[in-house]
Amino acid sequence: MSGRVRVLHVLKSLGLGGTEKVAQSFLAHLDRDRFETAVHSPEDGPRAAQIRQGGSATFVGMDLGRALSVFRPQVVHLHRAGWPEPEFLRPVRDYAARNPVLVVETNVFGRHDPSPSGSVIDTHLFVSHFCAERYARHTGVAVSWPRYGVLYNPVDTDFFAAALPDGPQPSEPVVGRISRADPGKWSRLALEILPILARATPGFRYRVVGGVPEAMSFVRAHGLSPHVEFLPPLSTDAELAGFYGGLAVLAHANDAGESFGLVIAEAMACGLPVVTHPSREERDNAQVELVEHGVTGLVAETAEEYAACVRRLLENSAEARAMGLAGRDKARRLYRAQDIAGRLGDLYEELLARKREGA
């Protein structure tokens, strides 16, 4: 194939969410000698400028069909939940009917799309083995290459290691959590542990990015304001490193669970031990794929168990540091952005060759 391969990543917004950050990281680390990259989104957001600074064009607010006709990609990479979305896929189907194109999706939540519009997608990439295995259980479909694959989300582990070469250095027993300010990203566990820790741990502090009204009301009602600090959103890895670097433990709690767990992976890349909890039934549960109990962090079921796990790490700095280092090593081995993007580039070229040969 002569010249660079044109790749268009398609998202629904360019906000600060994990899906948008993953796309930005792919674009920043794909080989510029092999790929010419661009992004389409109907909605603008803070990621747009960062993506352009990274060297990719952006088509913001433009009709997707128009963006496809202007950029003329050889690869369209969709970032979506996975369930049927005929309106979202229609411009891609129309473009594919007229042009040779490879359509790949990052299936963020591991959902099934049996609709006619979903047939335009050549390859589905799951963001965790948990999502791939659940998909196979629910559909009875053999999750095998080249129709399906697993590609972990990229994390700039090199940056975090350079920003925090000695790992987090908290000056007091500080626990933190970070998410979007969305009630769906919370669990009551994140609140119920606070009175326990405030009573049992002198100097306990809890720093929260993404506070929601329920959390703020809980803190006020239980007299926890001296222990809890609600912080504004963080938009860059430098800001995230500053946040993680001041913590002793990342306290992850989300009843919906994680299809991957970007916050967890970034905390691990910073050398921070993580406490989390398993999800019930068939909800997203990849958080326990990342957090190996007793290795990279601890997994608890109840508020009492969770608070005990946090206290264990706060009171045993050597154990906490060992788990943090194990997490950093795992993140570097499995989620390093340059390696993940390199693998994605290789997948594009392999899949394009297969499609040309009719395989």
UniProtKB/TrEMBL annotation:
Listed InterPro entries: Glycosyltransferase_grp1
Any Pfam family hit: Glyco_trans_1_4
CDD domains reported in the protein's UniProt record: GT4_PimA-like
The keyword Cytoplasm is annotated on this UniProt entry: no
Molecular-function annotations in GO: glycosyltransferase activity
Keywords for the protein's UniProt record, in alphabetical order: Transferase
UniProt cross-references to Gene3D superfamilies, sorted A to Z: Glycogen Phosphorylase B
PANTHER family linked: SULFOQUINOVOSYL TRANSFERASE SQD2
Protein's UniProt name: Glycosyltransferase involved in cell wall bisynthesis
